[in-house]
Structures are given as C-alpha cells and as structure tokens.
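job 3f2a | input accepted
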Amino acid sequence: MASAVSAIFILDLKGKVLISRNYRGDIPMSAVEKFLPLVLEAEEDSQAPAPCFTDDGINYLYIRHNNLFRKLHTHGNQGEGVNCR
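job 3f2a | predicted structure (85 res):
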C-alpha cells in the first residue's frame, strides 16, 4: 500500500519556505532545512540531482520550475510506482 503525502512545500531558490502544508505532522522542519543542501551537494558532485530521493527515512519528491522548488514529503514505502534512492 502506498503512503499518503505527509507534507507539501513551495520554496524559493534560496530554500525559503513560501507556502507549506504539513498534513500528517510527521515531517520535522529540519527536513525542509536539509533539502536544499542535499540538492546542492548532488549538483556539486557533477550529478543531476534525482527528483526523488530518501534521507533519514524521509522521502523527498520535487520539481524545480520557474525559480521555485515544489516538493512533497512522505514517510515509508511509496509503492511500486515510485522508487526513491
């Protein structure tokens, strides 16, 4: 069974939260603060950052569009349709 979305955030390119909704309350704000450094670290390693990755048990799914990050967080298994690494 796929897990539900725990939280949705819209960030500017500096990582500032513009809009947020934490539906289940199980995503700490520290996960939001860790997001941009994780993406920038992947870019520095000459890799294209994956649009879906997992860190400390929290799944990050995002797109960058029009100078904004639109991202959501989940806990646990996404199901067979989504493979976060």
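job 3f2a | The chain has one domain: 7-75.
job 3f2a | closed
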